[in-house]
């Protein structure tokens, strides 16, 4: 029972008192604390900036397929159903800067001075190649990869696609590839999944379906996360417009 050192014994004759219980496998007692830390919201955004193209191509070359399902793509001319996913989302560039997360990116190609400190967010070390479905689940904090458990994949939902229990492909692992996904970033994402799903009743999932019929804006405005999600959407789109030529340059041409 939480708050005590009493270990429950296997017996049908023992009545449990009301309270909060922690169920663990057989191993020495561990300290578990209740956290009030909030997870960082994110949105699913697809853009086609020059840097996104380089990011996507680098992941295709490195991973060769979905690192969650293990499906390998043998056709370099057809990548249908395979998408490049950011571990730390582009929509959280301000938090990336605040936490100085760029220090975890070590590849030399990310040392240029493009677009403030968001520059290293498009390093392949901050990404994995996944299927379209896995991408949505990863971005919605339903799927996570724990490098401290042999890169085991955890599904915080009902595991209806069977991804939970698999292991991330070796091609994307930091231990096997200097340009692999950084363990620190994967652990950061895993922690966000735990905070989003394991605190109290968990957090509501945002709808990521771009083609859903009905009053999508109305549902967004009625959400408890309205301002947060609007902020994330705006920040994600500002990253895109930073690549577009200014009106003066366009008119001069």
Q: Termini, distance in Å?
A: 72 Å
User: How much beta, percentage-wise?
Assistant: 5-15%
Tell me the strand order in the biggest sheet. 1-2
Question: How can the largest sheet be summarized?
Answer: 2 strands, antiparallel
Nearest-angstrom radius of gyration?
21 Å
> Averaged pLDDT, please?
76
Oligomer classification: single chain
Q: Structural class per helix/strand content?
A: alpha+beta
Name the poorly predicted regions.
Answer: 111-116, 240-253
Number of DSSP strands? 4
Give the helix tally: 7
Q: Which geometry do the CA atoms define? A: elongated
H-E string: HEHEHEEHHHH
**What level of helicity do the residues show?**
25-40%
Can you walk through the features of this model?
The protein has 253 residues and is of the alpha+beta class. A two-stranded antiparallel sheet has the order 1-2. The longest helix has 16 residues. The C terminus is likely disordered. Strand 3 and strand 4 form a beta hairpin. It is 28% helix and 7% strand. The chain has 7 helices and 4 strands; from the N terminus they run H-E-H-E-H-E-E-H-H-H-H. The chain has a domain of 172 residues.
């Amino acid at each position: 029972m939480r708050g005590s050192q009493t270990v429950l014994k296997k017996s049908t004759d023992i009545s449990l008192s009301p309270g909060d219980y922690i169920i663990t496998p057989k191993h020495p007692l561990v300290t578990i604390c209740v956290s009030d830390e909030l997870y960082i919201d994110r949105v699913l955004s697809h853009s086609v900036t020059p840097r996104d193209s380089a990011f996507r191509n680098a992941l295709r070359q490195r991973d060769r397929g979905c690192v969650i399902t293990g499906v390998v793509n043998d056709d370099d001319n057809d990548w249908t159903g395979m998408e490049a996913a950011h571990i730390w989302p582009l929509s959280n560039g301000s938090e990336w800067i605040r936490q100085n997360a760029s220090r975890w990116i070590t590849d030399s190609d990310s040392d240029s001075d493009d677009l403030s400190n968001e520059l290293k967010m498009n390093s392949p070390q901050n990404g994995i190649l996944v299927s379209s479905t896995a991408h949505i689940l990863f971005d919605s904090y339903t799927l996570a990869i724990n490098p401290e458990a042999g890169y085991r994949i955890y599904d915080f939902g009902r595991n209806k696609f069977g991804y939970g229990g698999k292991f991330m492909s070796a091609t994307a692992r930091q231990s096997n590839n200097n340009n692999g996904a950084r363990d620190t970033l994967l652990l950061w994402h895993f922690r966000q999944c735990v905070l989003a799903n394991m605190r109290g009743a968990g957090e509501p999932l945002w709808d990521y379906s771009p083609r859903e019929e009905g009053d999508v804006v109305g549902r967004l405005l009625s959400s408890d996360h309205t301002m947060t999600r609007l902020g994330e959407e705006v920040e994600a789109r500002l990253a895109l417009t930073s690549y577009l030529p200014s009106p003066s340059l366009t008119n001069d041409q």
